[in-house]
Specification:
The protein is an alpha/beta fold. The chain is built from eleven helices and ten strands. Helix 3 links the parallel strand 3 and strand 4.
């Protein structure tokens, strides 16, 4: 296996775009987060909030009806569209054309949701970030991967990765299989773990930020939101993925002295995103 390229501050600064002082929300991108089901609306909240906190101008959450008040009360800055179904998604119709879409956190794997995902993928043209249950549904229906726009970003944790590429017997086999998967379906693979790796066809990138504090519920949902927000702001998919994982890890490095490993939660990632951006700019 060839040596990975390291994702460092120096590398990030080569493509990082500071905010234009003359910009307005309409120029900062409109992202859609499709997430949540009964009992898992927190995933939609975390992904939507982190999307907004990554610098995105406008964020719309598409959720089942049961999450309407939850979203509107917990993140007043995020707009909300609801499915006609109460507890899970059955039909994804967007009355807008967003610059990027993040899909999957907490959506569950109900048959109606699987059908909705298929119908959505058939017509979607926006850049995509797929996570969590969207990946689990795709793992059961690999032919649907052909419907993804080129350079769609997939963010599997180890178990989701195994469902997608099959079991592996060694680290090198895991990388070989992931590279083959990335090449076959023309997707970018964010292999979450310690450290997180990004596979873009035959290129391997290793993130240099982050620590075990990130091994907590909702951490992946915030990463999905962040990468989606960066995509919506006009970053190319490979740069959105790199900047997203770098900032995500950096929040844990910055916050650890205050929280310790045990008390760090996914909301701390969102709260400390500002400090992570400031670190890049100084």
């Amino acid at each position: 296996m060839k040596d990975p390229f390291l994702i460092t501050k120096e590398e990030i600064l080569k493509f990082y775009k500071p905010v234009n002082p003359l910009t307005h929300k309409g120029l900062q991108g409109h992202a859609v987060i499709i997430a949540g089901s009964y009992g898992k609306m927190g995933a939609a909240v975390l992904a939507s909030k982190s999307c907004l906190k990554s610098g995105c101008g406008l964020v719309t959450a598409f959720i089942p009806k049961c999450g309407y008040q939850i979203l509107q009360i917990s993140i007043p800055e995020v707009m909300v569209l609801t499915d006609e179904n109460t507890n899970f998604m059955t039909s994804i119709h967007l009355p807008l054309l967003p610059q990027a879409i993040g899909l999957g956190p907490g959506i569950g794997q109900e048959l109606g949701t699987q059908k909705a995902l298929f119908e959505f993928l058939r017509v979607n043209k926006s850049p995509l970030v797929l996570d969590a249950d969207a990946l689990n549904i795709l793992a059961e229906n690999l032919s649907w991967l052909e419907l993804l726009p080129e350079n769609t970003i997939l963010t599997p944790h180890p178990k989701e990765l195994e469902r997608l590429i099959g079991k592996w017997n060694s680290e090198s086999e895991k990388f070989q299989k992931t590279i083959a998967f990335s090449e076959k379906y023309k997707v970018i693979m964010v292999m979450k773990g310690a450290p997180t790796y990004i596979i873009i066809k035959t290129e391997i990138y290793e993130n240099t930020t982050g620590n075990v504090a990130l091994a907590t519920a909702g951490s992946g949902d915030t990463l999905t939101g962040m990468i989606t927000g960066l995509l919506a702001q006009g970053y190319e998919p490979k740069y959105a993925a790199k900047l997203g994982v770098f900032l995500h890890g950096l929040t844990a490095d910055i916050t650890l002295p205050e929280t310790g490993y045990q008390s760090f939660i996914a909301s701390d990632i969102i709260e400390n995103l500002g400090k992570a951006f400031l670190f890049l700019e100084h």
